[in-house]
Specification:
2 domains; 7-stranded mixed β-sheet; about 450 residues; Jelly Rolls
Length: about 450
Amino acid sequence: MTSKIKVDNINKVSDDSNIIKKCGTTITLGASGDSIALASGASQTGFGRTGTVDWQTTIKTSTITAVNGEGYFVNTTAGGITANLPAGVVGAIVSFKDYAQTFDTNALTISADGSEKIEGQTFDLILNTEGIAVTLVYGDATKGWQAVNSNEIKNVAGYVEASGGTETTSGDYKIHTFTGPGTFTVSNAGNAAGSTKLDYMVVAGGGGGGNWASGGGGGGGFRESVPSPAAWTASPIANPGGALTASVQDYPIQVGGAGAGSGGPGAQNGVKGGNSIFSTITSAGGGYGAGYNVIGGPGGSGGGGGHPNKAGGAGDDPDVTPNQGFPGGLGNTGGPGAGAGGGGATEVGQDGDRSGPFGAGRGGAGATSSITASPVGYAGGGGGGSDNANMGGASPCGSGGQGGGANNSPRGATAGATNTGGGGGATGGPTNPTGGSNGGSGIVVIRYKFQN
């Protein structure tokens, strides 16, 4: 049987006269409505906390040295703030609240003491959700500080979170594909416990093919990064370890349009492809395929040169590292006239006559990547046009258009494939009414690790 003792007041009358030692005894201090206060300078032990904090009335606008049992209103309007947690003691508790609804713009970074953990990780906790309020309690050395009132703290391990484009996954990676202009929005930039890196493939629009013994359009500039060591099969010209570092922001995405094929009849050039852009990565549009007696246009890959003996356009223009493409080929000298192939991401466009007497050159090879989780060829050059039946072939990979023509006929010329950045095929004779074919539009793909 348990006894209950009620007293109105306890006064010390001897060294131990106010200590009740009977096992199982319940002591009630005060009556309903009373408040129990400790004398000035006194301290309590054994009572513990009730899971609440004392909210501080001074709004914090700079670095916070947090104290056990306190809560803080944090104003990050002027910039991000760091809160340093106290040393971990079992049951220690602190709270933070987004005072001005600005954590999504300027985050609060919560840092544990020394090598102590937050949610089992030895890395900072980033609060970047607008209006969030979080209470952290120290449980033990294994998990450290844990959030007890918010289910939004789910990414302490630090993986990138983002949205935009067409979203798919492959294993532990998320893939965003843009086939037209859009916005890639990063809401969590990750940290060293997970990943902060954004790998990419940025392919510009392919150039259009020329008319009359003309050059094929150049493939769009091709730029790609891949983790080191590689986590998928990238192109041979990918940049290992060249990923961008994520930051919480909107990234405008530009996808290069296809360069138009030349008009007809007569000697006319194609049109250069449009640039594709993701952050600091710009891939240049493929160079135009040259008309009769014209040099090919420069670009990500250069357009093929026209008959007679005209050079192809420069590739990798402007110059980047690794190269984004190759030059177009050289038009033939003799007759019938034959233009050259446009350059591709991994090969120079073929010269006129290379594929047989008076034959136009095929497009330079593109690059194949599995960044989208399937192998696809991109940025191949377009085939040249010929007055002879030997029209220029399409690139061996990269979906550049096949060249065409033969005695003023438009036969055989095809466009670069959509969203591959392939160059457009050229055409043959001077009276061709249709002219060269269009290049293919570009594409932007972003891939990052989102779980482990």
